[in-house]
Specification:
Helices cover about 35% and strands about 15% of the residues. With about 300 residues, it is α/β, with parallel strands linked by helices. Bound molecules: fructose -6-phosphate (F6R).
């Protein structure tokens, strides 16, 4: 289905992006959408099937859902969850396991039925993994598919643990983690040497089948990969770019994570700018870099109007 893109300034963006002034505000908005979905399905006597992510990114969303459960009676009795991934091998009671993460951040604080919680099993023998992965996919399918999948994005462009090279139609499987992903996880494990080299993850294809997909990203650290995912060409080198093919995906960003998108980084390319706050200088530096010339070799008119009015 074609996407209606009415804003000229977003023309480099190949999927819908919503930018919030802070991570806290964005997290509240995503939690509100999840709560609304749960309540509307509950009202119809239906269960909500959620795809969940771990990591730093969704912590504020889970905190708000817990708050709504405790203060506003939001119930998880009719919620079924499937987590994206788990390290392999991994014991569920280990501090770094995604089972521990989900218990600490959500499940131990809400009224979810434990039988409705699904997280890839990091304790399986290698020869049991393939059958487990197939069963994980089938369970999701039998329940009618994921209503909503929430995602973070790794600096490699991974979604779930679908690292560069992953296929758009990949299913749940055992994968090898990218070196950068293991670096980013090293603090949690007290050194990179302790980070597992593998993980079980839902595939890009599994994620793609969800009826709604929300990818969240916060902070400057994510800005370069967010730009590639939103504005770059679709490629297995940045698996998140496959989301451009979905007509039910939305990226939810804070200002820092959105800062490298064209409309914020080089706004003069896509809209009329109010030339304040150093924007003129930024534009001149950008121009000099783009045409690969020293600033003083740019046409004098540009330098006098943009940076140095008193140039003799
Ligand atoms: C976690 C997951 C990963 C993370 C990503 C971002 O279940 O699937 O794709 O979402 O690595 O991690 P954070 O949020 O820690 O920056």
């Amino acid at each position: 289905m074609a996407r209606l893109n009415l804003l000229e300034e977003t023309r480099y963006e190949k999927l819908p992006v919503t930018v919030y002034s802070s991570q806290a505000e964005a997290s509240l908005a995503v939690a509100a959408r999840i709560a609304k979905l749960i309540k509307s399905k509950e009202a119809k006597g239906e269960k909500t099937v959620l795809g969940l992510a771990t990591g730093v990114t969704p912590i504020g969303v889970y905190a708000e859902l817990v708050r709504q459960h405790k203060k506003e009676g939001l119930s998880f009795k009719n919620v079924i969850t499937f987590n994206l991934d788990e390290y392999y091998p991994m014991q569920p009671n280990a501090a770094q396991s995604y089972v521990t993460f989900m218990n600490e951040n959500l499940f131990s604080h809400v009224d979810i039925d434990r039988e409705n919680v699904h997280i890839p099993d990091g304790t399986l023998a290698k020869d049991k993994v393939a059958a487990f992965c197939l069963d994980y996919e089938q369970k999701i399918t039998k329940l009618g598919g994921l209503d909503l999948q929430i995602l973070g994005i790794g600096r490699t462009g991974h979604i779930g643990f679908n690292e560069p090279g992953s296929a758009p139609n990949s299913g749940t499987r055992l994968v090898t983690l990218d070196d950068l992903t293991r670096n980013d996880a090293s603090r949690d494990f007290g050194g990179k040497q302790n980070v597992p080299t593998k993980a079980i993850t839902m595939g890009v294809g599994t994620i793609f089948k969800a009826r709604e997909i929300i990818l969240m990203a916060w902070s400057q650290k994510k800005a370069p990969i967010v730009k590639k995912a939103v504005e770059g060409e679709i490629s297995g080198d940045v698996p998140a770019t496959f989301l451009q093919l979905s007509d039910h995906v939305e990226f939810v960003l804070d200002e820092a994570a959105a800062s490298s998108l064209t409309r914020f980084d080089t706004p003069w390319l896509v809209k009329d700018c109010s030339w304040e706050n150093g924007l003129k200088k930024k534009a001149v530096i950008w121009l000099a870099e783009t045409v690969d010339k020293p600033i003083l070799n740019l046409p004098k008119k540009i330098i006098t109007t943009m940076v140095w009015p008193s140039l003799p």
